Amino acid sequence: MTTRIKDVAKEAGVSTATVSHVINDTKFVSDEVKLKVEEAMKRLQYIPNMVARSLRSRKSNTIGLIVPIKTNDNSNNFFLSVANGIEEVLSKNGYHLLVSNSHEDPIEEIERIKMFNTQRIDGLIIAPTSGITRESCGLFGHYPIVFFDRRPEGVPGDWVLVDGMKSAYRGVSALIEKGHRKIGFIAGRMDIPTSNDRFNGYRKALEDYGIGFNEDYIRIGDLNGASGYEMTKELISQEVITAVFVANNAMSLGAVKYLKDNHYDIPGDIALIGFDDYEWTGIVNPPLSVIRQPSCEVGRRAAEIMLKRIKRSDSICQGHLLEAELIVRGSF
Amino acid sequence: MTTRIKDVAKEAGVSTATVSHVINDTKFVSDEVKLKVEEAMKRLQYIPNMVARSLRSRKSNTIGLIVPIKTNDNSNNFFLSVANGIEEVLSKNGYHLLVSNSHEDPIEEIERIKMFNTQRIDGLIIAPTSGITRESCGLFGHYPIVFFDRRPEGVPGDWVLVDGMKSAYRGVSALIEKGHRKIGFIAGRMDIPTSNDRFNGYRKALEDYGIGFNEDYIRIGDLNGASGYEMTKELISQEVITAVFVANNAMSLGAVKYLKDNHYDIPGDIALIGFDDYEWTGIVNPPLSVIRQPSCEVGRRAAEIMLKRIKRSDSICQGHLLEAELIVRGSF
DNA sequence: CTGAAAGCGCTTACAG
DNA sequence: CTGAAAGCGCTTACAG
């Protein structure tokens, strides 16, 4: 069968302990013995069994990741990009990545977390749904947690967020400085913190520029293209506005689609700023100005924090707030 | 510390073997005893340790997935979508998914496979790079392999592909039936089988309609938007053609961008069919006609085959060829 | 500097 | 129908 550490030990004429120490570099072993062991490993084509190692050492070198991608949202590049960033950092450091999807559903999320618990993950990186609250603490194992994209209150853990408030503020104030006063705001459900933060950025911008807040200019829908389409339609047909800020990527696409379908001139009739810099934003006509989140960086950072936390679990939790930038193109 | 099966056994007044059998339903246990065990588990909040189970039972309930997403290709929804499909099926069946990325680099691919081998995965689902050949067989462990998107020759394993030949055939013959005779073909490197298959579909369509093949109409670049842009530019400036078939998603975007930047009328000056149905294809002007691959279905199917193969490893390997459809919109 | 041995938490023949 | 015990392949105090 497969060769074990015992076989290597016999082949090299040493104890299994010594082989283990050579493999893990956990104690000084003379060069002579080390060489013998290494040659034996090569000769026998030894492949360490990480499962056994995990059991004994009580760490799995595995990090769990839970993303909240909805079933039909197969173009959610934000999370793809974050996952890429995480995978990059982890695999460079010899860690494995176990991936799961909550589909933005709190029930499924709990199931996934429980599954991960049985796997003895060393840490969990998660974009939590609104289901994760102070009461959820007991759900998690004794591993460090890094939240990204959203951050539940009352649950200890590090976090990496993009400053949604500042993001929206940037977009909306750019619209204002172009002379717009009647600015619509479209977002997804407010129980997801990102939507809420961005909404606050919108309000803050209006406030700072001395523009009155008008509730009629707000449309809250679902986080998908169809809803973006509907909300834009509603907003534009019911209100006299000159600009729209869309606080979500899928909805941005819906907004563009509605405006195009109905032959609105962008930015002549309606100025538009969308969220997230997907590739298509550069090729629509006019190219869409957007808020670009540093998504890959979010992933990398989350993974780095996780690895640090695993090394020193004592230090207090900390947050990282990354900044988004406004990409100015032709839509406002 | 954490409670073990031994604690449950003591609490329930039975042996660990009985507890194990209750958990795994692997032998008949009287209802009475079963109940006692179940109550004990609940009382002690017992969480099985899958690592220990894996070690003992020599199966990990974990499948490895290796995708070939290049570093900057964060909009590769094809693989995102496939991964979603895989995750969906696996987690429904109690399996875990370990994800890694080869970045389309054979060297990295080998490293990732080796990492997976140490993890004792029960199976590997992979879109192999061109580095996987007959000689690579020794690289894999004794687990079943399901290839998707591409299929290396001479390596045993099941596979799930989308018929690239037929896909391209469909697109190109649609162009021909619209009256086009001078049709350009743009694709990525030919060492990736998908590009090659699609090229063959292009040739076959020309042949079947009695149109001569002209090598000057072919442009082979890299699998990214910039290259799509360049190839389109070259093709259009050097040749007199009326239509282009682009055999890759990122390159399709580049092609559209070039045509738009240079104010070509689509389909008036140049008719266009792209590859893969990303969300943006519906909102550009005119909406892009594309070949839509059933990406999520590829993932689901790959996972299902994997699970079947794990259950009965005796049956012979089989392939699944899914069909892509032509989505007709306004670009030809 | 190296080795003998216990033990991580399970499953699984085997015996009764 | 249930239990005692071996063993999966490692790591890690401990002794020398």
UniProtKB/TrEMBL annotation, chains A, B:
InterPro entries: HTH_LacI, LacI/GalR-like_sensor, Lambda_DNA-bd_dom_sf, Peripla_BP_I. Coiled coil: none annotated. It holds the Pfam family LacI. Gene3D superfamilies: 3.40.50.2300, lambda repressor-like DNA-binding domains. SMART domains: HTH_LACI (SM00354). Keywords: DNA-binding, Repressor, Transcription, Transcription regulation. One of its GO terms (molecular function) is DNA-binding transcription factor activity. Residues 3-57 form the HTH lacI-type domain. This is Catabolite control protein A. It comes from Paenibacillus wynnii.
